[in-house]
Design brief:
Elements (H helix, E strand, L loop, with lengths): L16 E4 L4 E3 L7 E6 L6 H12 L1 H6 L2 E7 L3 H11 L4 E4 L4 H5 L3 E6 L2 E6 L2 E5 L5 E5 L7 H9 L2
Parallel strand pairs: 3-4, 4-5
Antiparallel strand pairs: 1-2, 1-5, 3-8, 6-7, 8-9
Length: 157
């Protein structure tokens, strides 16, 4: 089994530019001077990913009040992201990483265990990034349900 990259606190967050749900280019650099919660998920409209997205949606005011913007990355095409955002009323930006380059750079794509067997795919992960673009915390293999509550505890001190 190959070892996936794991970002550590203090590491520079890998730079990226991806298309959002509207087909607009969005870069991490666009958020310079702001803190970011960046989360990666396997696939829009699946039960776990919908639960996680709705938890982020329902906590958006608290996350924003803590001074963070939310960005979400999956390999889904732009049109599917637009449909997911509309369907679930998501207030944050969804980004399309069809070749998994950004997920790979963050260590959020690679070998993982799925029902007892090793598969390659997106690894549900969340990254807290500071105003200078450095990793505050990197959380890998998170559970879809209850994860946002743990993030809020960290953000709100």
């Amino acid at each position: 089994m190959t070892e996936n990259i794991r970002l550590q606190p203090g590491d520079a967050a890998p730079a990226f530019t991806l298309e959002d749900q509207s087909g607009e280019q969005v870069s991490l650099a666009d958020f310079a001077g702001r803190k970011v919660v960046l989360y990666t998920y396997p696939k829009a409209f699946t039960p776990g990913c919908t639960t996680e997205a709705c938890d982020f949606r329902d906590s958006d005011a608290r996350i924003t009040a803590a001074g963070y913007a939310v960005l979400a990355i999956s390999a889904d095409p732009v049109a599917k992201l637009a449909e997911f955002k509309e369907s679930e009323g998501l207030p944050f930006t969804l980004l399309s990483d069809p070749g998994h380059e950004v997920q790979t750079a963050y260590g959020a794509y690679g070998e993982k265990q799925n029902y007892g067997r090793t598969v390659v795919g997106a690894i549900r992960s969340t990254f807290l990034i500071d105003e200078e673009g450095r990793i505050i915390e990197a959380l890998y293999n998170v559970r879809a349900k209850g994860h946002v509550d743990r993030i809020l505890k960290k953000l709100e001190g």
